[in-house]
Design a protein that fits this description.
Organism: Nocardioides koreensis
Protein name: ABC transporter ATP-binding protein
Number of helices: 15
Shape: globular
Order of helices and strands: EEEHEEHEHHHHHEHEHEEHHHHHEH
Family: Belongs to the ABC transporter superfamily.
Strand order of the largest sheet: 6-7-8-3-9-10-11
Keywords: ATP-binding, Nucleotide-binding, Transport
Oligomer: single chain
Radius of gyration: 21 Å
Distance between the termini: 34 Å
GO molecular function: ATP binding
Largest sheet: 7 strands, mixed
Strand content: 15-25%
Structural class: alpha/beta
Length: 346
């Protein structure tokens, strides 16, 4: 993997509720994404995925831990964040809400160019219109000039998503963070946008962190997958290994409802993700774990550990397959490796 990497090391993010309680939105997250690779961050709503994306872009400041970009800890000065956002761009989830309905397509794509003064710094001395047209073409909006004066309400959902991507590409970033980039699109358009992200990786060497609840999407696009639950990554590894041999019961449950997985019996999880102000002891998934509920964990002799013994933070290894689960650790001869900085859940 060459080029810059965006990394999270032991990141904790906390919010204070109206009642004065501390909600741990992220609780020891290790994750990295580099130029030229696609990493999928997967989990239910409320698992902390979007908070990870916002924190890695400097939009949220961690209570502890650090974000590192291109080998340097992230600085939160205005100038440093402007430099970061020139090189790392975010593609938001809802194009209808993200695009200003009063701005034309041209103005939406050109906005970032103007904010960062890209035209004045362009070594090829291209005009603003040329840079906008090039970004739109890269995003699959062709011919771009025919769309310059259109407004968001005149575009299809897929076209609006491409306008958001074009606005990010106009700055010439090295990494994209895409938050649920196809969740609001029809199935046929979803495939087109995913193919576009793969093409951008091949042609421009872009790295992409894709935030999604859909393991099927991750299977089609990602090189690596990190599965998140209640503020912490519980399973991570190369896509083929994680999805062909999922070890965490939570990953197995998410995978069982992917339409393509006809041979798997759907696993219906009971209850909701717990309140982040009251994270369960032991394995944080244990109140909803099918292996505990059906007696499997008890038969293997790990049920007490599941309820009481904390699990280590998974390392941000770009090669290995790791899982934070007492039952999986028992079944694996070696168990998951942990980083030197691994910490137990308080």
């Amino acid at each position: 993997m060459t080029g810059p990497q965006l990394e999270a090391h032991g990141v904790n993010v906390e919010f204070i509720t109206r009642g004065g309680q501390v909600a741990r939105a992220l609780d020891g997250v290790d994750l990295r994404v580099g130029a030229g690779e696609i990493v999928a961050l997967v989990g239910e709503s409320g698992s902390g995925k979007t908070t990870v994306a916002r924190t890695m872009l400097g939009l949220e400041r961690p209570a502890s831990g650090r974000i590192v970009f291109d080998g340097e800890p992230l600085s939160y000065s205005t100038r440093a964040l402007r430099r970061l956002r020139r090189r790392v761009q975010m593609v938001l989830q809802d194009p209808a809400g993200a695009l200003n309905p009063r701005q034309t397509v041209y103005e939406s794509v050109a906005e970032g160019l103007r904010l960062h003064g890209i035209v004045a710094k362009d070594p090829e001395r291209r005009t603003e219109a040329e840079l906008v047209a090039a970004a739109m073409s890269s995003a699959g909006l062709r011919p771009p000039e025919a769309l310059f004066l259109r407004y968001p309400h005149e575009l299809s959902g897929g076209q609006r998503q491409r306008v958001l991507i074009a606005g990010a590409l106009a700055l010439g970033p090295e990494l994209l963070v895409a938050d649920e980039p196809v969740s609001s699109l029809d199935a046929s358009i979803r495939g087109e946008i995913l193919a576009l992200l793969l093409r951008l990786r091949e042609e421009l060497g872009l790295g992409v962190l894709v935030v999604t609840h859909d393991l099927g999407l991750a299977w089609n696009i990602a090189d690596r997958i990190a599965v998140m639950y209640l503020g912490r990554i519980v399973e991570a590894g190369p896509t083929e290994e994680v999805l062909q041999a999922p070890q965490h019961p939570y990953t197995q449950a998410l995978l069982s409802v992917v339409p393509e997985m006809e041979e798997l019996r759907p696993v219906v999880l009971t209850g909701e993700i717990p309140d982040p102000t009251r994270i369960p002891g032991g394995c944080r998934f244990h109140p909803r774990c099918p292996a505990l509920q059906d007696g499997t964990a008890a038969a293997e002799g790990v049920d007490d550990r599941c309820r009481e013994q904390p699990l280590e933070i998974l390392p941000d290894d770009t090669v290995g397959h790791h899982v934070a689960c007492h039952l999986a650790r028992l079944r694996n001869s070696t168990g998951p490796r942990t980083s030197p900085e691994s910490r137990s859940l308080a």
